Amino acid sequence: MKLDPAGGKKLDGGLSLAESYELCRRVQKAHSRTYYFSTRLFPAEVRPRVHALYAFMRYADEIVDHPHDLPLDAQLSVLEEFEAETLAAVSGEEVPNPVLRAYADTVRACGIDPGTITAFMESMKMDTRVFRYQAYADLEVYTYGSAAVVGLMMCRVVGVAEGKADAHAEALGVAMQLSNFLRDVGEDWRRGRVYLPLEDLARFGYTERDLALGVVDERFVGLMRFEIERARRLYEVADEGMGYIPRGRRFPVVVARELYAAILDRIEAHEYDVFSRRAQVSRPAKLLVAARCAANDPGEIADRIRYRRTSPAR
C-alpha cells in the first residue's frame, strides 16, 4: 500500500489496532523491498513494531518527497500538523491516523524517547528549507534527526536498553542513509536537493552543473570513492555494537546492515554511474546475503528459532 499524504489520500480511521499494524506492514512492503526483506527475519513479536516504525517515518518522508503541487510552506504546515498529531497519539490521545495509532502503541510499549520523534520531525522540516549542505558537519545536523535517531528507536524496538549501544545504532542509521544518498544522487537532484556536501564537490572539482548533466568522470569517481569510504567507516562503528542486540534478534539487523552496505558495492560495480543505473540488490543476492550472515553466526539462528513467537505483540 503506497502512502500519499501530500496528495490528500486519507487512511481509514476506523481500523482496529491490529488492523492498523497490518496497514503498516503493507506500507513497508510497498515502499521498501530491502528493509521489508530484513524485517521479515525478526521474531513475530518484533515485526509489527518495525512495520509501525517504518510506516511512521515513511508517512512524514512522503510529505516532502512527493509533495505534488504543495508549495514549501504548505509542506511545512502538513508536517507540523502530522507532528502535533503524532505527539498527541504518543501521549495517549485518540487520533484518526491508523499509522500513528500503531506507532504510538509501539512508542509506549518499547520506551521510545519522545525527544527522538521531535528530532526526526525537525529533519523532515529541514527538507522544506535546506537544499544544500556546505560541509559534512552541516549534513550531520540533518542526518542526526533523519537517521541517527531512527537507529535509537530501533534499539528500543529490539530490546536494547539505553546506553552503550546508542552510538553504534546512530552510526548504523547514518551509514544506511548515506548509502541511499549515494544511490539516489540523480533522483535527489531532480527534487532540488543535494546531499553531497558542497565542500566535497569542490575538493574534487565537480560542479552542480556536472551533477545536473549526470557527468561521470574521474572527478565524480574520486568524489564517490570519498563518500563511500565515509559510509563504510560508519558501518565499522556500527559493527562494534552488534553484540549489544539480544540473541535471537540480532540476525535481521546484521542482514539489513549487509544489504545496505551492498548498495555501495553495486555502485562500484556500475563504475559509479548512479545516474543511468540504479544500484540495487536483487532478491537472489539478498537471499545469499542472509544465508552468509546465518552461516557466520549459527548460534544466533539457533536462538532465533528457540525464542520464536507464533503471534505478534500488540
TrEMBL record:
InterPro entries: Isoprenoid_synthase_dom_sf, Squ/phyt_synthse, Squalene/phytoene_synthase_CS, Trans_IPPS_bact-type, Trans_IPPS_HH. PROSITE patterns: SQUALEN_PHYTOEN_SYN_2. The keyword Transferase applies. Signal peptide: none annotated. CDD domains: Trans_IPPS_HH. Its EC number is 2.5.1.32. Keywords: Transferase. It is an enzyme of class 2 (transferase). One of its GO terms (biological process) is carotenoid biosynthetic process. This is Phytoene synthase.
